[in-house]
Amino acid sequence: MRAVKSFINFLIDNDKLQHNPILKLRLPRPDAQPVLPLSAQEVVIINSYINKYFEDPDRTYLIFHLMLDCGLRSGEVVRLRISDVIPDSGIIRIYRSKGNKSRFLPVPEGLMKYLHHYIKETSNDRKLNKTNQVFLLEDGRPIDSECLKRICTKIKKVTGIERFHAHLCRHTFATSFLMGGGNMESLRVLTGHEDYDVLKGYLHIAHSMELMNIDIYRLDERFFQQFRYR
Predict the structure, then answer these.
(1) How far apart (Å, rounded) are the C-alpha atoms in residues 151 and 196?
(2) What are the start-end ranges of the E strands in the chain?
């Protein structure tokens, strides 16, 4: 198909065709390669290295664990606003994310306390820079996607976990949720997917991890007790 598309473009460029007959034809998606989720020990290592190597360990820890323990996309972390954090209810709102859709997510109690503390500690910088975003740079300005990429690259470098990247956290969340007894529909709602196509890959990996008895990182019990997934 790539060869045909290239040839069609060649014909158009040389005035042999007036329009592209396969303009709306999409290439089939390749099968996704299986990715090993983070193990419990690897998360312990990452946490210890965050405290050791990062100038703002609180911010880095929260970014890492919101993706890992709540399944946030990297862009959702960057855009998270103060008004989206609801400590009394123990939830955060993901406002107009992929597909312009919003959703609510539960946050483990300890992580929510940590997040609420960070917000209070950085409130002066936030007022000074007139921003409502949760996560700030060292100079008080809100973080951006490039900052988050640098954080993930540094985690990969200092820990030696070569497969680490932001999406691996969300990948681990989904796999761990299914291994803990969560169902596909609940996972679809929590991750903000429209259908089950991507989630089927997580289900396959979860079954593989169970068969091999691999100790991947385990989610907080809140995901299984409060919402009665088990």
Answers:
(1) 30
(2) 85-86, 91-94, 103-106
Burial 187-222 (b: 16+ CB within 10 A, else e): bbebbbbeeeeebebbbebbeebeeeeeebbebbeb
Full set of structural domains in the chain with CATH: 1-30 (no CATH), 40-225 (1.10.443.10)
**Structure token pair of residue 107:** 């946050």
Query: pTM of the prediction?
Result: 0.82
Residue-wise pLDDT tens digits, 55-106: 999 999 999 999 999 999 999 999 999 999 999 999 999 998 887 789 999 9
Residue 151 in tokens: 């954080």
Structure tokens at 145: 């996607």
Tell me the C-alpha distance between 106 and 190, whole Å.
9
- For the purposes of burial, counting CB atoms within 10 Å of the CB of 22, is it exposed (0-12), middle (13-18) or buried (19 or more)? exposed
Q: What is the DSSP letter of 202?
A: H
